[in-house]
Amino acid sequence: xxxxxxxxxxxxxxxxxxxxxxxxxxxxxxxxxxxxxxxxxxxxxxxxxxxxxxxxxxxxxxxxxxxxxxxxxxxxxxxxxxxxxxxxxxxxxxxxxxxxxxxxxxxxxxxxxxxxxxxxxxxxxxxxxxxxxxxxxxxxxxxxxxxxxxxxxxxxxxxxxxxxxxxxxxxxxxxxxxxxxxxxxxxxxxxxxxxxxxxxxxxxxxxxxxxxxxxxxxxxxxxxxxxxxxxxxxxxx
Length: 237
Fold this sequence. Notes:
single chain; disordered N terminus; about 70% helix
C-alpha cells in the first residue's frame, strides 16, 4: 500500500513545479469512513422503523400501558443514531476534502492547462454556501479529465459516475435537511410517524450517495495512479 504522504513512484521527469503525491492512502481512508457513514445510516433506518412501529401500535391501541417512556427511548435511539451519523460525516468530510485537494494537486502535474480553478479552490469551494452545490463538481470534472490518458479527448471516462454521485449527494443533502427539520418540528403521533418515514428515506438516499462516492473516489484514484505509472503522454500531431 502506498502511504498517503509519500511521493508517487512515477517516471515523470523531475522538473520545477508541482510534484505528484499518491492519493491511494487517503482514498482508503475516505472509503473506510464512508462505510462508517453507511452503518450510521442503517442505524437511523432501524431507529426510524422502531419509532414508526411503536407509533403504529399506539394508534391501533396495541400499547395499553403507554406512558411516553417507550416513545422517549425510541426518540433517544433516533437521536443517538443521528449523533453517530454527524460524527462520521464530519470525519469523512475532513478526509474527503484532503483527498480532493490531493487529486486536484496531481491534476496540476497531469494537465494544468485544462484546470479552470486553482488548487486552493479544491478546499475553499466546500465552504461557500449555495455555490458548494456546483463548484466542487466542476473541479472534479476537470480533475477527472486530467486523469485520463488523453485529457484533451471529447469526454473523459467515468463522467456518468461523477454526475450520478453528485446528483445523489445534492439530493440526499437537501432531502436530509428537510426530513430532519420536519422530525424536529413534529408534535403529535401522526406527524412524528410521518416524519420518521422521511428520516428513513433520507438515510436511504444518503446510503446511495455514499456508495457512489466510494466508487468515484476509487476510480479517480486508480486513474491517477495508472496515469502516473504510465508516464507523460506523448504529444499528438
